Amino acid sequence: MKLLLETAYAKFDEAVDLAIRLGVDPKKADQMVRGTVVLPHGTGKKVRVLVFAKGQKEKEALDAGADFAGGEDLIEKVTKGWLEFDKAIATPDMMGLVSKLGKILGPRGLMPNPKVGTVTFDLEKAVKEIKAGKVEFKVEKAGVVHVPVGKVSFGFDRLLENAKTLLEVILRAKPPTSKGIYLRSIALSTTMGPGIKIDPLDVRSVLKS
Length: 209
Description:
Layout: H1 2-7, E1 15-22, E2 34-38, E3 49-52, H2 56-63, E4 68-70, H3 72-79, E5 87-90, H4 95-98, H5 102-105, H6 123-132, E6 134-138, E7 144-151, H7 156-172, E8 183-190, E9 196-198, H8 200-208
Parallel strand pairs: 3-4, 3-5
Antiparallel strand pairs: 1-7, 1-8, 2-6, 8-9
C-alpha cells in the first residue's frame, strides 16, 4: 500500500482497486463467490440510490437518504431509458413489476437482488449501508474478483483498513467445494498505475495478526 501511494502520479484523485484471482470454477453454481461488504471508509464515490417502493415505504426510503423513490411512475421512467442512478433497491411487493425491467437493469448490474440485500422492507438500513460504502463483489468468468477500495486521497491507514476488511470477507466467502489454493493471486492498483502484486500468504498472516 505504501508503494502504491508512492507511485501514484496522476493529477486527479485516482481510484484504488483490488483484483483477486480465486481458486474456484465460476461455471459451477456451488463455487460462485458473491456477496457484499461495507467498507469502513467507503469508496470515495457518491452513489445515487433509487428505491422502488410505494406508500409509507417510499417516504421511508427518501427519509433514509435515497436520491429517487417511487412505484409504477419510476418503473415507466426507467422503461423509457432513464438510468441516472448507480444502485437500485426494491421492496419485495414491488418485484413483480420490477422484474419486467430485467433486460434493462440486469446487464448493467442494477437489478435488485435479495442475495445482496437490495430486495428488502428494511429500506432505512439498505439505503444507509449503500451510502456509507457498501459494495458488491462477484467472481467473473476467469475466477477474478475486482473491487474498488477507495481513492488515493484516503491515505495509507484508511486504504489499508478498507482492503483488509474486503479480504476478510472474501476469505469467509470461500465455497466448501473449492479445493486447493483459494487465494491464487492478488494485485493492488490505482486507475493509472501498475498492478502491484501481493503474496497471498503475506495477506493471510496480516489478517491473522
